[in-house]
Specification:
Layout: E1 2-3, H1 11-24, E2 32-36, E3 39-44, H2 50-61, E4 69-72, H3 79-87, E5 92-95, H4 102-112, E6 115-118
Parallel strand pairs: 4-5, 5-6
Antiparallel strand pairs: 1-6, 2-3, 2-4
Length: 126
C-alpha cells in the first residue's frame, strides 16, 4: 500500500484500514465500509455512486467510527466522496486509486487533514 497524502496514518489507523479493506472485499459494489477498533460500524452497499453508499455507511455507524477508517472497493472518482468520508469521522481512507482525478481526491484528503492509502487493487464486485 502507498501513502499518498501529506499525513501518514498512525499504527491504529493502519490497523483500522486493513480491517475495513478486508470487510470491503465481501460487500456488494459500490461498497463503503467505516470501521474502528476491529468493528465495521457502517457498511453502505449496492448504490449507484460512492457518496450515497458512504451516506448509508455513515448513518449506520452513527458516529461510532469517528477516528477510524473508510474503505472503498473502487477508486473515488471525485473529491465529494473524500469529503463524505471525513464528514463521517474517518481519519484514514483506503481505496485502490487509479482514477484520472486521483490528484483532486488526494488534495481533498490533504485539505481535510486525513490520510489516504492506495492499494493498487480493487474489490469491485460487478
Amino acid at each position: 500500500w502507498e501513502v499518498v497524502t501529506a499525513r501518514t496514518p498512525t499504527d491504529a489507523e493502519m490497523a483500522d484500514a486493513a480491517f475495513a479493506w478486508r470487510v470491503c472485499g465481501h460487500v456488494t459494489s459500490n461498497a463503503i465500509v467505516l470501521a474502528r477498533d476491529g468493528v465495521a460500524w457502517g457498511i453502505g452497499a449496492g448504490q449507484q455512486n460512492r457518496v450515497e453508499a458512504g451516506e448509508i455507511a455513515a448513518a449506520k455507524a452513527d458516529g461510532r467510527a469517528k477516528g477510524g477508517a473508510c474503505a472503498s472497493d473502487a477508486f473515488y472518482p471525485f473529491a465529494d466522496g473524500i469529503h463524505a468520508a471525513a464528514d463521517a469521522g474517518a481519519t484514514v481512507v483506503v481505496q485502490p486509486g487509479g482514477s484520472v482525478n486521483d490528484e483532486a481526491t488526494i488534495a481533498a484528503a490533504d485539505e481535510r487533514g486525513i490520510s489516504m492509502l492506495f492499494t493498487g487493487e480493487r474489490h469491485f464486485l460487478h
